[in-house]
Amino acid sequence: MAQFVKIYPENPSEKEINKVVEVLRNGGLIIYPTDTVYGLGCDITNTKALERIARLKGIKLEKANFSFVCHDLSNISDYIKQIDTSTFKILKKALPGPYTFILPGNNNLPKEFRKKKTVGIRVPDNNIAREIVRKLGNPIVSTSIYDEDEILEYTTDPELILEKWDNKVDLIIDGGYGDNQASTVIDLSEFEPEIIREGKGSIDIF
After folding, report:
1. The dihedral sign for the CA sequence 83, 86, 87, 92
2. Is this structure's pTM higher than 0.90?
3. Do 77 and 105 touch, CB atoms closer than 8 A?
4. How far apart are CA 75 and CA 6, in angstroms?
5. Which residues form the YrdC-like domain (predicted)?
6. Distance CA 157, CA 143 (A)
7. Which three-class secondary structure string do you get for 110-146?
8. pLDDT < 50 regions, the chain
9. What CATH number belongs to 3-197?
10. Is 12:32 a contact under the CB 8 Å cutoff?
């Protein structure tokens, strides 16, 4: 049975955030709100937790395209190669926001991801997600939770998420209704920005 914790995005309770961080530090899996859809996440430094997420998604860990959720831009530089000024300007303009940026990874990446040349980075415009990462002290690995429903691609109601994921994860955050549109994915690993998936974030700013 997963813990079910109510956290208000406007002013996340420190006590509840600490509860979430403790679960992550102990190798637990959480479902948490972002500025787009609800995400399934774990501590980036915990191999067992990473393997659990990959199993839940039915994929091999080394093939997984998980994104790293960071607290801010300074957090990002720990895991990516040095970027040029124009790339930095794009990130500064768009983040925090509903975007996933694909950037060249560096040698600090957890060993499970080093074979990949690039990494997807997110800084969601959601206080709950960012507070968790800030308190944890390093990014969380994240992937969207899909719905089998043919009409709705993503579950937005925390109560329904609890029903479906109760026995699969360790903690579920009720941060209010989520969005049903995923982030816009932009590849910045080459010379020109390339839109991989158009989602919630406007592409006009590029």
Report:
1. positive
2. yes
3. no
4. 26
5. 14-201
6. 17
7. CHHHCCCCEEEEECCCCHHHHHHHHHHCCCEEEEECE
8. none
9. 3.90.870.10
10. no
